[in-house]
Write a structure and sequence with these properties.
Keywords: Glycosyltransferase, Transferase. Pfam families: Glycos_transf_2. The protein has 279 residues and is of the alpha/beta class. The protein folds into two domains: 216 residues, Spore Coat Polysaccharide Biosynthesis Protein SpsA, Chain A (Alpha-Beta Complex), CATH 3.90.550.10; 58 residues, no CATH class. The protein is 41% helix and 22% strand. The protein has eleven helices and twelve strands. The strands form three sheets. Strands 3-2-1-4-11 form a five-stranded mixed sheet, with helices on both faces. Helix 10 packs antiparallel against helix 11. The protein is globular. The mean pLDDT is 93.
């Protein structure tokens, strides 16, 4: 049985719409676990009243993304999960999303799978995975490098985000859960999927499975829209900071080939120090 784990903190509207999109799936042999990390906007009441079929794990407000996901995975495993999928609450999955993810998962049972992301406002693809050249810290965006005719099936990538991320139990048995100690929020998903790839598990973006996201609503985008000295330090050092230097260092030490590490670290630090003001 597939269990979908969704960590949430407030933003009730997004959670409701995400769960409604999961209810509309063409394939229904899955269950949902929501990790409500101390929401104060009535999320707990909404879940109980409108989605009684959803299993709820309650946090104290200090889990952040990584520990929240791990708590949900642990609960799903106790319920007998045979596959795990992580998902953010600010996504809407297309009706055949689960069907198309499980189609490829059944053909490639050891593979970690992500999905093609669309802009919820325009329906246009905004993220289809990337391949990273560690030597030059250059990201090759598959959406721009693939011909439109190739926007289907599986494409190998270096890592994947946690939005609609399907993980076989064999991966969890081999590498454990997400690194909540060193990567409490950002980069934990990229790290986990990169580590899985380094352990021999194929990592693919599944262009047949699509979900819609809100690109302008990410924490990184909101911080950059309100540029300030405080925001700059939050960007570099805050737990939710998209340019967090500590997180980047841990990710690099775990995943970058040693011969490329000095340049990759220096280049990455420079990008984070100046990038806040350039985007």
């Amino acid at each position: 049985m597939l269990y979908i784990v969704i960590p949430v903190f407030n933003r009730l509207k997004y959670t409701r719409e995400c769960l409604q999109s999961l209810r509309a799936q063409t394939r229904t042999d899955f269950r949902v676990v929501v990790v409500d990390d101390g929401s104060t906007d009535g999320t707990d009441r909404m879940l109980a009243q409108e989605f009684p079929e959803v299993a709820v794990v309650t946090g104290n407000g200090n889990l952040f993304w990584t520990a929240g996901v791990n708590a949900g995975i642990r609960h799903a495993l106790t319920l007998g999960a045979t596959r795990i999928m992580t998902m953010n609450n600010d996504v809407l999955v297309l009706p055949d999303f689960v069907e198309r993810m499980l189609f490829w998962a059944e053909k490639h049972p050891r593979a970690v799978l992500g999905a093609l992301e669309l802009d919820v406002a325009t329906g246009q693809p905004v993220y289809g995975g990337e391949r990273l050249d560690w030597r030059t810290n250059t990201r090759h965006d598959l959406l721009t490098e693939l011909d439109a005719a190739d926007h289907h099936g599986l494409h190998p990538v270096t890592y994947l985000p946690g939005r609609g991320l399907l993980i076989p139990l064999e991966v969890i048995a081999k590498i454990g859960l997400f690194d909540e100690k060193r990567l409490p929020h950002y980069l934990a998903d990229f790290d986990y999927t990169s580590v899985a790839r380094l352990h021999g598990f194929p990592v693919y973006c599944n262009y047949d499975a699509r979900l819609s996201t809100y690109p302008d609503e990410s924490g990184q985008e909101q911080t950059r829209r309100r540029r300030s000295v405080k925001g700059y330090f939050q960007h570099l050092f805050g737990i939710r900071g998209g340019g967090n230097l500590r997180n980047f260092t841990h990710f690099t030490l775990k995943n970058c080939p040693p011969r490329y590490m000095p340049y990759y670290l220096l280049n990455g630090y420079a990008r984070r120090l100046v990038g806040y003001f350039l985007h």
